[in-house]
Amino acid sequence: MKIAFFISDHGFGHIMRNVAVISAVQKMGHEVLLVTGNRQMAMARQYLPQPVREIIRNTDAGLEVIPGTLSIDTEATTRAVRRHLLRWPELIATAKDLHADRFVVDIAPWALQAAKETGTPCFLMASFTWLDQYGWFLPEELLAPYRTAFAAADRVLMYDLANPPTKNRYPVHTDVGFTARPFHEDAAAQIRSRHSRKIVFLSLGGSNIGLDFEIDVSGLPYDFISAGTLRLAGANTEMLDPSTGNTQDYVKAADFCISKAGWTTVSEIMLAGVRTALLERNDTPEDTMTIAELKRRKAVISISTEDLKDMKKVMERLEQYSGTGRHYSNNYRKIALEITG
Q: Where are the beta strands (DSSP E) in the chain?
């Protein structure tokens, strides 16, 4: 069977939560076609055991942030969406030309539209849709094509922590829990062996250009490892090279995580069972709903961007937080079976 995956090129979270699924599909003997952005394709090559047929496209408009912040630039995002919608006919034609047996979409809506027009069975892999992110500021003329496209999904595979609007939009769905790149216990142990103090892993996202202030952690009794674009000060800090692979092993090795609330990193955190502070961003509904649900489960604490300026207080809160002790399963094989069954 020929299965086409259409993966958002907004950041790296969408491709990272799909590489384990794609790998499982390949091991079942199916041919995979992968449609995503250039940087995401380069990332996928690091993880997939077999080559895929690569179709490099700008698959999503995504979100634009105000430089030096993590706040959404609504005007720039509106312009980006308007430009991207003009390309949908070309993108839909690309999807039709693949002649795939099934489409798997996370979460590029035009691919759902192409599936409907060709009668190709399609799966939407969702914890949110762009309607949830754009609905509070885009004009209806730009939202309307998204509404039409997202309504075209044949089947919806719903991740754990899917937000309430998405659950309401798709009352008939299959719950598939969490999925992430598998941990490598030996690698995590090696990371821990290099540190005599507790490890704090910071993951503040690959889809932004960072914060414009310095975070001084030099006097704190921890080792801070950052995978994002942060200005950390202190001899007890390590900045991972952007090309560093298997960052999920740093999550597994850490005693604490400080992260944006992107679904893929949250999934890795939940699977690792590490104590975590998630960054509140009130202009990002998806993050707000994810954090609210995790706090309801008593699984995380939340902090603001301002809180990052006093890391001592953040760490005091994390030390006092005990977590729930709840364990989750990595369901990438279950998802692969749903797609191929």
A: 2-7, 31-36, 53-56, 102-106, 122-126, 155-159, 174-177, 198-203, 214-216, 222-226, 231-233, 237-239, 256-259, 275-279, 301-303
